[in-house]
Design a protein that fits this description.
alpha/beta, five-stranded parallel beta sheet, binds 3'-fluoro-3'-deoxythymidine monophosphate, binds magnesium ion
Length: 212
């Protein structure tokens, strides 16, 4: 029947350092997919509007202090609270364009003293596995040249360098690494090409799970 043969939506994740242009690219992609009748939705983790997200926002804006382990679990919980919605969106044919995901979760916490990449992955195990991960690659020096950081926690040059080195350890062979120092349009063109290619391959494939 028509429903059975309907292609599921994809889970597309864009990762990269602060100022790499993730949000800009995600929003452009969402818009251009919708324009060609591929229903898609922009998501950004942390999702600061939920109850869990409000605590994360307080923490990032230094209004509260929390144990580093607790914060890590809250970032993960903030993805888990969207799991059912992500699955149901994809099953109903909606492609999700996600600005940061579990990889940011791991790369940022593991940049703190005493946290291993392995431990950080734990709470992410079982979340929907992205069909495509695009990494917007930028050296921290070029990123820093794009203007001053804000006042949020983690917006510190030395910390970002550790985050970048963690990201490099998380890269899997199927990730698409794009040079983010280029003009917005050139990057968007590459992203769209990658997305349409994966869309052709995925068809009705089952949604896989992270790190299992
Ligand atoms: N961040 C983001 C984490 O530490 N863990 C996570 O799981 C996620 C999704 O939160 F410094 C960090 C990354 C960044 C901060 O993110 C806020 P945005 O994208 O700048 O809002
Ligand atoms: Mg930020």
């Amino acid at each position: 029947s028509e429903t059975e043969s309907k292609q599921r939506g994809l889970l597309i994740v864009i990762e990269g350092l602060d100022k790499a242009g993730k949000s800009t690219q995600c929003k452009l992609l969402t818009k251009s997919l919708n324009a060609i009748n591929i229903p898609s939705k922009y998501l950004h983790f942390p999702m600061r509007t939920t109850a869990v997200g409000k605590i994360i926002d307080d923490y990032l804006n230094k209004r509260i202090e929390l144990h580093d382990s607790a914060v890590h679990l809250l970032f993960s919980a903030n993805r888990w609270e969207y799991e059912a919605e992500m699955i149901s969106d994809m099953k109903s044919g909606v492609t999700l364009v996600v600005d940061r995901y579990s990889y940011s979760g791991v790369a940022f916490t593991a940049a703190k003293p005493g946290f291993s990449i392995d431990w950080c992955r734990g709470p992410e195990i079982g979340l929907p596995r992205p069909d495509l991960v695009i990494f917007l690659s930028l050296s921290q020096d070029v990123a820093a040249g794009r203007g001053d950081f804000g006042e949020e926690r983690y917006e510190v040059d030395t910390f970002q360098k550790k985050v970048l080195s963690n990201f490099k350890q998380l890269i899997e062979p199927e990730w698409k690494i794009l040079d983010a120092s280029r003009p917005i349009k050139a990057i968007q063109k590459d992203i769209k090409e990658q997305v349409l290619e994966v869309m052709n391959e995925i068809g009705e494939c089952v949604i896989e799970r992270l790190w299992t």
